[in-house]
């Protein structure tokens, strides 16, 4: 029997960057994100007694199954089974956007594999399970605006949808500065910030202090404040990264060009706010009425390297037909 699931990527407004416990994947701070509608991963899982090892296919190509296999060990432990699995994933994320993320991947794998192993986990339990694969996957179990409570142990570190969802028609524009594979992965990058950045403690304290204001700003549809807090969290994270040993940055020249265009638009009264993750691409938060104006402003520099999406739904079990589509 094969089980199919779909999970969407998310972009953090208040970032997760740094682990308090690497083994349990507990973050140093809570984080808040938006789940995106147009970028998602579909995953099929079959526990098959005839297999001698786990197998993992991504976008039609056989992959090294190590990370998937380690994650499945956790699922097998919970489901009290020992069978190996065939895992087949399709990333519905334009690879050029550099968004192919571990968030949608492990949220989809947690949803499909737990069900295939005979478990019927609650959304909270699924979120905790996805966390073991990748921190940002914790949040991709839920749609809309999501908070990941950092917690202090395995049971208390999980995500949930924010109690009051914004009613604003939020949109995210993804500007592809470079489609190359990340120079430094999030996992390695954040470990190096924790180990070597003299700004790390300040980053943790300042980022945690943005959580409550962001919850209020989202509940009150205060776009100017949502945007301000989003830029603060992103820039402070990148400031801590720049101060690492050896010094490092994810910024490319065109990254700054995108930030500058966003600031120019804001000076003209357009609500647009930029954020960046562990790579040079820029995501711009706005609302639906301003998407076309922003596209017009960005196109002379970035051409068709801009995608726009609204907020997406919870991770879910899907049918074979949806998977094959
Ligand atoms: C900058 O979740 O990819 O996107 O937990 O080590 O798998 P691991 O890292 P990952 O890191 C995401 C970092 C970020 C910010 C965020 O999504 O909150």
Automatic annotation (TrEMBL):
Task: Spell out the molecular function terms from Gene Ontology.
Answer: ATP binding; diphosphomevalonate decarboxylase activity
What region holds the Mvd1 C-terminal domain? 172-304
The record's Gene3D superfamilies line, in alphabetical order, gives: 3.30.230.10, GHMP kinase, C-terminal domain
- Record key words, sorted: ATP-binding, Lipid biosynthesis, Lipid metabolism, Lyase, Nucleotide-binding
Into which EC class is this enzyme placed? Answer: lyase
Please list the GO biological process terms of this entry. Answer: isopentenyl diphosphate biosynthetic process, mevalonate pathway
Instruction: Enumerate the spans annotated as Diphosphomevalonate decarboxylase-like N-terminal domain.
Output: 7-159
Per the UniProt entry, the Enzyme Commission number(s) are 4.1.1.33
Q: By its UniProt entry, which Pfam families does this protein fall under?
A: MDD_C, MVD-like_N
* GO CC annotation: cytosol
Q: Can you tell me which family this protein belongs to? A: Belongs to the diphosphomevalonate decarboxylase family.
Instruction: Read off the NCBIfam families from this record.
Output: mevDPdecarb
**What is the protein name stated in its UniProt record?**
diphosphomevalonate decarboxylase
- From which source organism is this entry? Lacticaseibacillus paracasei (strain ATCC 334 / BCRC 17002 / CCUG 31169 / CIP 107868 / KCTC 3260 / NRRL B-441) (Lactobacillus paracasei)
